[in-house]
Amino acid sequence: MAPLPARKRSQLPDSAFAYLDAGGRRRLPIHDAAHVRNALARFNQVIFDDEASRERARTKLLKAAAKHGIVPIGFITGQLSSRGARRLPSGWVTFLLADVEGSTGLVRQLGDGYASFIADLRRFLRLSVRRSGGLEVDAHADEFFAVFKQAPAGLAAALAIQRDMRRQAWPLGAAVRMRIGLHSGRPTLTESGYVGLAVHAVARISGAAHGGQIVMSLATFRNLDGPMPDDVSFIELGQHRLHGLPEAEAIFQVSVPDLPGRFPPLRT
Predict the structure, then answer these.
(1) What interhelical angle do 114-131 and 103-110 show, nearest 10?
(2) Least buried of 50, 138, 142, 171, by fewest C-beta within 10 Å?
(3) Do the Cβ atoms of 211 and 101 come closer than 8 Å?
(4) Class in CATH terms, 88-255
(5) pTM value?
């Protein structure tokens, strides 16, 4: 298929593209049959802003394919669902939830550039999670939710994120700090993702942390089997009551020499 010239691309309406990312870039052109076929082939290579964006693009592409009569809808559905809930691990898993501390202030500081910042941040987080063997579950606003089959992989991703965050040059010199929570459990996996107390627990644990901090539940701490890097240690922060959870939770802070280690008391 011949490349779409920039001038012709600029003349196409937004409806001629399956996906408009958070930065306003138009991806996966579907204005004719040839480009629909190309979009089908490239769909699973695109990194979307979040699962909701992916589903909207998928639906739009399905409609375009049906319009041009390219392949049966059932075949397309099977091809495009490869990143859905069926790939997420079931059974005992470790969740990682990261979010930006002080995001309201960043919105004021970055203004119209905030959407582009969030898109770049998500790409950065996805790369860190994938390198550690994890999978994205969901991304909403400045929150990023991932899952790992093994607790050590979740810890490795959390450390990589915090270390890389300190090396990033953010727009307008913004100070961006993420708080990260880890929790292990046995949630229920449905077609739309995970449900259960473990999901609520990791959200509460992450929300109790401060920017730059990594905290984990006792369940995750106990599942860190195997040798740990020599420079990783754990600080017991005591038992904490977390909103919506039936029992107090023992929380541990991850400590390494090259990351900040002193934080205010947990927000519980």
Answers:
(1) 130
(2) 171
(3) yes
(4) alpha beta
(5) 0.69
Q: Does residue 4 contact residue 35 with C-beta atoms inside 8 Å?
A: yes
User: What SS3 class is residue 254?
Assistant: strand
Give the DSSP letter of residue 232: -
Boundaries of every domain in the chain = 6-83, 88-255
CB 150 within 8 A of CB 94: yes
CA distance 18 to 29: 6
pLDDT tens across the length of the chain (268 residues): 667 888 888 889 999 999 998 888 899 999 998 888 888 877 877 888 877 788 888 888 888 887 877 753 444 445 454 444 448 899 999 999 999 988 888 888 888 888 888 888 888 899 999 999 999 988 887 899 999 999 999 999 999 999 988 888 787 777 889 999 999 999 988 766 788 889 989 999 999 999 999 999 999 999 998 777 778 999 999 999 988 788 899 999 999 999 998 999 999 8
Task: Name the β-bridge partners of 217.
Answer: 251
Which 3 state secondary structure label does DSSP give 261? coil
Q: Which residue has the tokens 């959390």?
A: 158
For 205, the 3-state DSSP assignment is helix
